[in-house]
Amino acid sequence: MGVPDFQTVMLPFLQLTEDGGQHTTAEVIETLAQQFHLSVDEREELLPSGTQRRFDNRVNWAAAHLRRAGLLESLGRGRFRITQRGLSVLSSTPDRVDMKLLAQFPEYKWIAGAGGDTKEPVAAPVPSVADQTPEEVIEATARQLDEALSQQILDTLNAVTPTFFEQLVVDLLLAMRYGGSAGAGRRIGKSGDGGIDGTIDQDPLGLDVVYVQAKRWQSSVGRPVLQAFAGSLEGHKATKGLIITTSTFSPDAVAYVGTISKRIVLIDGRMLARLMIQHGLGVKPTATYVVKQLDSDYFAPGEVSNGTSMVESDGD
Fold it and tell me: N or C end: fewer C-beta atoms under 10 angstroms in the chain?
């Protein structure tokens, strides 16, 4: 039978969670391996990179797609449970749960939102390989990997302490080369902080300071939060501020920052995750693939045939 593809895995995966309890990825992997009657060799088969077992990888991808479609909800690192939507899907007794079925749900999209601005969504399934060049396939796959990693980052951020999240925000800005020195960023967040969780010095003397607020929220950040933050900036005689959240910003909040004289930048959860990936904060590489092309400079023009068929021996 061999190792099943991740779409074949999705229905039995969802059925394992039908009890409504908390489950772990490791538990599901072990149970599904038994259900699919995988041999020892199939169970231990690795990806070409040698970094992960193939079946484990496919189960993890099944989980990522089910979460993205809202059929599972994350409870922290490697823990999840079925949602009401997931139970509704199972109640319809589908023969198969796959990407085509999941495409009916609006959340099952590539979402590229920053500062409350959500671009036109693109359907999650990758186009057929037959319709793409190999380079396009690689790029599309890389986008899928980053999307799945982004969701893992957000799930993890929602489980960390507020203090850790505030420090992470400062670390990210320093990784993005704001401030220019290790001591340029400081976490302030504490009782009576006036809504300021951190600061970044834009110059060595601290004459130009960016004030930061970090919101580890599940719900959307609304206009009242931004108004209070603008008031805190006024109290510090500051003109620049940054609000970073693990969730989103309401349309009113986004509109508000365009009406005030102070410069307040908004970074929502999706952009936060992408910035962490881009600047290597809280993530690490597992495999590197190098795509090579012909080096035309190596082959002198006179050494390359003009297209006429030529067969020459090694000797005279």
Answer: C
